[in-house]
Amino acid sequence: MERAVVLPAKLATAKRPREDKYTTAGVEPLSSIDVTKLGLATPGVLTVGTLTESPPTNCIDAKGRYSGFDNELLRAIAKKLGLRIHFVGTDFFGLLAQVESGRFDVGSASINATDERRRTVGFTNGYDFGYMALVVPAGSEITGFDSLTGARRIAVVQGTVEDAYVVDTLGLEPVRFPDSITLYASLKSRQVDAWVAPSLTAINLQRPGDPAQIVGYTFSPAGFEAYAVAKENRALISALNSGLDAVIADGTWPQLYADWVPRPLPPDWQPGSKSAATPHLPDFVAIAARHHNADSSPYAPKSTLAQLRDSFFDWQLYREALPDLLKTGLPNTLLLTVSGGLIGLVAGLGLAVAAIL
User: Fold this and answer.
1) 3-class secondary structure, 66
2) What are 119-143's pLDDT values in tens digits?
3) Would you give the DSSP letter of residue 235?
4) 40: closest CA among 233, 198, 226?
């Protein structure tokens, strides 16, 4: 809760896209849903494609467990439906195609439910609203989205709604990266001039003293984020909508929202169907005011040595990564080493025998 933030002033008063033509009027009662008819790849199991490095919405925690707001919410929805859940990490660029092809039953990655994407996949009702941030290096001459021109190196994560926004709305060709962490490192080192980013990802990655700042915000094109499902699987979409309304009503959605993405909702939007219960949320504005003091000191350029220290000797980062390295990286490395050795041994013996014969 200490991470609570307020909606930026320009965003809070901005006109948000309307989703009324897609948000359902109501949902089917949970008791009438037959989970054997949901078209799941594995009966009784919801197979979900998700991201691993996009906190606070999609990430892997220190125990190697898929977590983040999107995934924890989907866990709660699956529990309401009596389904087990299996997460698989992938990159965003290929996620919707994998949902369409049936490799995944659901895509969970803060996906903005745009009209263009609806040509490929179907979507549930919204569970969060989406807005973008413009991040630039400290001291940049870029002051907002209207400052972006073709002469600037504008970075995006490939295949995202931010990618489409730069191309379709701004009419510019961006520099594309596979993930936000690599992109942000390039921005801080001034290899790119600006980053059009998912706002929560940008806020979460920024650390005190970073040579970067957010200079603008805008709503994402669809105005809300939803889970992606194959278009023809209307039964699964309907079931997930029912589960979403149920976790809003029992207080699970408000709790997860406050834990993971604590900020006020836009005045004219709420999650779920049009008949969903109104979620009861804390006063994030007051909480943010208590826990966050504005830092008015300007960014002080760091020496090359200081930048190297921050990049390669962040002991807190090592402490956070070490459990994953020991529990996941080490076993996988040993498995690959042993497997490679056995395969090499068998292949070598086979070739030797063939040479003798």
Assistant:
1) strand
2) 999 999 999 988 899 999 999 999 9
3) H
4) 233
